[in-house]
Amino acid sequence: MSTTATPPFGAPAPGSGRRMLGFQLADPSGHNIQGDDEDPLNLTSFQIMTPAYAVAAIAKLGGDSRYLLMPIFEGDIEEPSLIGPSDTEISE
Fold this sequence. Notes:
It is a single chain. By secondary structure, this protein is an alpha+beta fold. Helices cover 11% and strands 21% of the residues. The protein has one helix at residues 51-60, and strands spanning 20-26, 47-49, 68-73, 81-83. The strands form 2 sheets. The protein has a two-stranded antiparallel ribbon. A two-stranded parallel sheet has the order 2-4. The radius of gyration is 14 Å and the shape is globular.
């Protein structure tokens, strides 16, 4: 029996060499919608949600299946800005 260990948040995925930074909001097809008119959170395209912020964001959206969290790794976003619950309140 083999088990696959999940690296801790912020640790590089095995073999990837890239560290996970956080999450962005996507539509059901997996397309990033941050910075678009479809983004109900009014986030910018370069903002990356910390895990705590992402949990609060999905709760605010009521678990709406129209929105998914997309993992973001180092190098995915040019000049990323991490946001967390203490940094910015989730907009109404």
